[in-house]
Amino acid sequence: MNPPGEPRRWTPTPLIGGAAAVHAGALAALAVAPAAWPWAAGGVIASHLALTAAGLWPRSSLLGHNWTALPEAARARIAITIDDGPDPDVTPRVLDLLDAHQARATFFCIGERAREHPRIVEAIVARGHTVENHSQRHRHHFSLMGPGALRREIDAAQATIGAIAGARPLFFRAPAGLRNPFLEPVLCGLGLHLASWTRRGFDTRTSDASLVARRLLKGFAAGDILLVHDGHAARDAHGAPVVLAALDMVLRAAANRGLETVTLRDAVLGY
Ligand SMILES: [Zn+2]
């Protein structure tokens, strides 16, 4: 593996290589036998459907390497990953909760939010956590962007977050986990590693913290990467962000099992 943060060579996955071969084969078939066009078109459409399906499945590795759990060496621990912040109300309370449990977390911040709340990003780092890249604007059509737009979106967040946090991100998480085949070459060029999760609590949509915690703890095991949110956080009937109570339950369960928390940087890259 190249040193963390260094650009690396992109090699297509079998699915992407296969799709490219189908396209080349379709063109060759049309050149020698134009009447074969329905077969050629069918092959091309099928390969596009396969690529799209792979991109809609956040935990798949069909479009490129994807960290969905910690590597073997870090398997006595778990990673808490916290997306969509920083948020001026929720993030400081999440930081206090993490301190109370002596836990460390990985914050996938949105570049524009980091620029609006730089002091909160600095507090995240000062309290022993790490800040990674969750795109500059968290656009809903992120997975429909072409290579140039993807690169600009991710590179802008690298610059914004790197300048505020004092270190350029080493991991990227796609908005909503949705991707397309152009993403992995862009990540390789920027020296970023894609990270998704083992399980998530849907804490942006569920107003019941116990339900969120149950989803995160169902089948919970060492090596898990858990996903919660400090931005876009759902609120319970009393107006409290559900992530606070849910994360508290998860960290208690982890402590009961003797599982310590670790940042993705420490677990995957060893520093
Ligand atoms: Zn997000």
From TrEMBL:
> Pfam families this protein is in?
Polysacc_deac_1
Q: Name one GO molecular function term.
A: hydrolase activity, acting on carbon-nitrogen (but not peptide) bonds
GO BP:
carbohydrate metabolic process
What domain of life?
Bacteria
- List, alphabetically, the InterPro entries matched: Glyco_hydro/deAcase_b/a-brl, NODB_dom, Polysacc_deacetylase_ArnD
Question: What Gene3D superfamilies does this protein's entry cite?
Answer: Glycoside hydrolase/deacetylase
Annotated NodB homology domain residues: 76-262
Q: Which PANTHER family does UniProt cross-reference here?
A: 4-DEOXY-4-FORMAMIDO-L-ARABINOSE-PHOSPHOUNDECAPRENOL DEFORMYLASE ARND-RELATED, GLYCOSYL TRANSFERASE-RELATED
Q: What is this protein called?
A: Polysaccharide deacetylase
